[in-house]
Fold this protein.
Amino acid sequence: MSGTLQVFVPFWGDPGLLYATVDSVRAQTDGAWTLTVVDDCYPDPSVALHFAEEADERITYVRNETNLGITGNFERCRRLASEDLVMFLGCDDLLHPSFVERARTVMAAHPDAAFLQMGVRVIDESGAESMPVGDRIKALLRPRSGSTVEISGEDLAVSLLRGNWLYWPSLVFRRTWLPQRPFREDLPIILDLAFIMDVVRAGGALVLDSHVAFSYRRHSESLSSAAALDGTRFADDRRYFREIGQELTADGWPRAARAARHRWISRLHGLTLVPDAMRSPDRSTAMRHIWTHLTR
């Protein structure tokens, strides 16, 4: 098997959900893991008190001196990484008991792979299984495979730029791919895709495994959906896809560059937000942002 899985949990949110996340790591069948909660100055002193009583030496709690924001907190986690395998687990998501064992087994069987995507179950705020439109689209975009398959190069870039079907908090990275790739401060909402594309362009292969071992919590209200309605995410999307399209052309990956220019799923995402925009207090502005995203 591969070495220890180092789990980072960048925290800002509901303490109760965080504790459930930590318990899901504690319940692993394979004990070769460490867990570090990185608290981005969440204004609730009970969180620090809770972890002060933690007896498991594999679990560490650190609190940032100042609020670093999404990108800054992910960046701190990246810099703290020291084990063979690393993941950035969401502070409200859940590992299934077999996650660590499966991750170590699969990554050992694919020693040249940069990262791993296992099967994911989507849940709602209450923990019930859920499959919103966006996740149904992800399921359609995800390459079909038997059990485990390795994908890389332009084929992987095309697939992800047509529509990002990965679940970022569930990804397991080989640490050797992390040191030279800082998270981009100018892309807080799509920092995951930008980071992953850097890995893919550098030759990193993805292992896609059908074994379901992760529960991803989908909230009806999220930072990314709010950013879309105020135009922030759409503007970042357009800027990033223009930029990556130019870079892929220079790389000699014309199919991937074309996928970046068309960005059909990104545009479709805008259409799915029309009902939310119509309910927005500033409906006209939200609809204008969506229209701009669809037509530019």
Remarks:
- The chain has a mean pLDDT of 90.
- Strands lie at 5-11, 33-39, 59-63, 85-88, 94-95, 115-123, 148-151, 172-174, 206-217.
